[in-house]
Design goal:
By secondary structure, the chain is an all-beta fold. The protein is built from one helix and 52 strands. β50 and β51 form a beta hairpin.
């Protein structure tokens, strides 16, 4: 282990598994546990960071991989009636394709850029098209015949990134732009086929193409819950968890109708605007203007920034009147920092004030952390941090001279996802981190960390700064950390699910009802934390080295389960352990038959994390 950089040291991991009665799939991730670590749900992905476009086939246009913050796939000719790139299999049937799309030029009126599915030939496909006439449309293209299935008015601006998602399931088609549903409808023209990137008399850039097996519900809100088959509860399954004594109370759901006193922010807003729905302002202006108890609503779209958006120290709400920064109900704002260079100073959103509630934002491609929390008593809820060049969401002190008494404390990270964060040296970008310099009472609940280049969770400590406050991680999930969604790896990363310490410093963390699956090193590791941690009701499956490794300290272990589908390294446990635990010591115990099959997860309508194995809800 190398000596960590100040403010960015190594990470710690742990994850929480979910208990609740409703199954509502916002998204599903499948991992084949009977055959190792295969990502069965991801049929195809490409972020073009390799500098090539392997697996794509061209029909018209001038296509190259160029740099736009990161690698992107560019079509530069505007004199082509149609320019297309195809990928995937002609046998694909029910799937969801997502991509970021930036139109860069249009040649005439009625031109478009699009994302397509079920292409059976060079001129057949379903597509979600952005038209320069101010429309987004879901279309069926069959040669020269174009049938509009549905659409909505949408300002389409060159130089702006749009997040597109197209789902095909049976005869049902649904399209979303920036998290807002454009249209849904029915067509029986094409039953299977490849994905397509297309332009018509237009130039554009495409990035982050992902194809997932199966149809997906709206990316901006949970689907209606359904009732899964009742699982057989483990004999040691706890009652429904109560809130941690140190955790803030769980927030209520975002309101469906915004209050009239709110400030509104939109991609085209201006600093001096009033901040009404019809005259929106900018995020940086709204942050300085919102009063305690007020709400900043961000409308759908991609917000491009080249410098950190900061909630400054002293810009505080109160315990009874938080300041709220929220996605507008039913919409998905994306804060994109791809213009930043990789550098510790280049964070995305910095929450350095106290008593804020951040809800429903996607923060991506920052030069360092996507979301940095230096303040206290904040709630970060339903955020997604992805493709950042250090840890996705990190808690640490604001500055090197910040006294211990002001280290971030009593923050709640709730129903959040962090994935595909990767730094250039491959050893600093975790999903979540509360490390180096954090106070007490910080809680991660119902969180999911996957496919980060280093650890899922990092609670690292070092001698220079001493112990951190005890952290609670509960009802959460970590999987496939150490390998990016596109298969990329780096040799320097630790690749643990939950890394819980560092440098022989004892901190008494609590990790309960969490799940670690198929991470590149250990599932749960003490990482030289020789304290007395509480490790209870956790499940660890098929991690590359040990599922559980605790080689020192006096931690207490109860009701933990370790399973493998094939041979592996025995768990190592030092501390207070009894027969309520089922460790892996060369063979599986009786509980493991309940934890086989594909892994799925979703957040239900209240934000609770639902984890399934083989279609059954996991109860720990």
């Amino acid at each position: 282990m190398r000596t960590p950089r100040s403010g960015r040291a190594r990470r710690a991991g742990l994850v929480t598994a979910a208990v609740t009665a409703l199954l509502a799939m916002v998204m599903t991730v499948l991992i084949n546990l009977t055959g190792g670590v295969a990502m069965a749900a991801t049929l195809f992905s490409d972020n073009f960071n390799s500098g090539t476009a392997t697996g794509w086939s061209k029909s018209g246009g001038d296509w190259t991989v160029v740099t736009d913050g990161t690698g992107v796939f560019q079509q530069s000719k505007t004199d082509s009636e149609l320019a297309r790139q195809f990928a995937g299999s002609s046998s694909w049937t029910n799937y969801t394709v997502t991509a970021r799309v930036k139109p860069t030029a249009f040649n005439g009126s009625g031109r478009y850029v699009s994302l397509g599915a079920r292409s059976t030939g060079s001129s057949t496909r379903y597509q979600l098209a952005l038209l320069n006439t101010g429309r987004a449309e879901l279309q069926a293209v069959n040669g020269s015949a174009v049938t509009v299935i549905g659409g909505m008015n949408l300002s389409v601006t060159t130089g702006t990134w749009y997040s597109l998602q197209l789902s095909v399931s049976g005869n049902t088609l649904t399209g979303w732009v920036n998290g807002a549903q454009v249209a849904t409808g029915s067509s029986s023209l094409f039953s299977a086929g490849r994905i397509v990137l297309a332009t018509s008399y237009a130039a554009a850039r495409f990035d982050d193409v992902v194809v997932s097996d199966g149809a997906a519900p709206s990316p901006s809100a949970p689907a209606s819950p359904s009732t899964p088959a009742s699982p057989s509860a483990s004999p040691s399954a706890p009652a429904s968890p109560s809130a941690s004594p140190s955790a803030p109370a769980s927030p209520s759901a975002s309101p469906s109708t915004p209050p009239s006193s709110a400030l509104y922010v939109a991609p085209g807003g201006t600093d001096g605007a009033s901040g009404t729905q019809s005259n929106p302002t900018t995020l940086t202006s709204a942050i300085t203007r919102i009063a305690a108890g007020g709400t900043i609503y961000m409308r759908a779209g991609t917000y491009n920034y080249s410098s950190t958006v900061t909630i400054a120290p002293g810009n505080n709400g109160t315990s009874s009147a938080r300041k709220k920064l929220s996605a507008y109900p039913g919409e998905t704002p994306v804060l994109n920092f791809s213009a930043q260079a990789e550098d510790p100073a280049n964070r995305g959103l910095a929450v350095n004030g106290n008593y804020w509630h951040v809800y429903g934002l996607i923060v991506e491609r920052a030069g360092d952390n996507g979301i940095f929390v230096g303040g206290s008593n904040n709630i970060l809820e339903r955020t997604i941090t992805r493709y950042n060049r250090d840890t996705g969401l990190q808690l640490s002190r604001i500055a090197s001279d910040t006294p211990n008494s002001q280290w971030p404390a009593n923050n709640l990270i709730l129903s959040a996802e962090s994935h595909d964060n990767a730094d250039s040296d491959g050893e600093d970008a975790d999903g979540f981190a509360a490390k180096l310099t954090v106070g007490s009472g910080n809680v991660f609940r119902y969180c999911v960390s996957h496919n980060n280049i280093d650890d899922g969770w990092d609670l690292y400590t070092k001698t220079d700064t001493g112990p951190i406050g005890a952290v609670t991680i509960e009802d959460s999930l970590a999987y496939n950390n150490g390998t990016l969604s596109n298969g990329g790896q780096a040799g320097n990363g630790d690749r643990n699910g939950f890394k819980l310490g560092g440098e022989d410093i004892g901190v008494n963390h609590t990790v309960r009802r969490t799940i670690a699956v198929s991470n590149g090193k250990h599932g749960f590791t003490y990482n030289r934390n020789n304290g007395s941690m509480t490790i209870s009701n956790n499940l660890s499956i098929n991690n590359t080295e040990r599922n559980f490794t605790f080689e020192a300290g006096s931690s207490v272990f109860r009701n933990n389960t370790s399973c493998r589908s094939s041979s592996g390294t025995n768990d190592k446990i030092v501390g207070n352990t009894d027969s309520s635990n089922q460790w892996w010591m060369g063979s599986n115990g009786s509980r493991c038959s309940s934890f086989t099959g594909s892994l799925g997860w979703s957040f239900n309508s209240t934000g609770a994390l639902i984890v399934t194995l083989g279609g059954r809800v996991v109860v720990l």
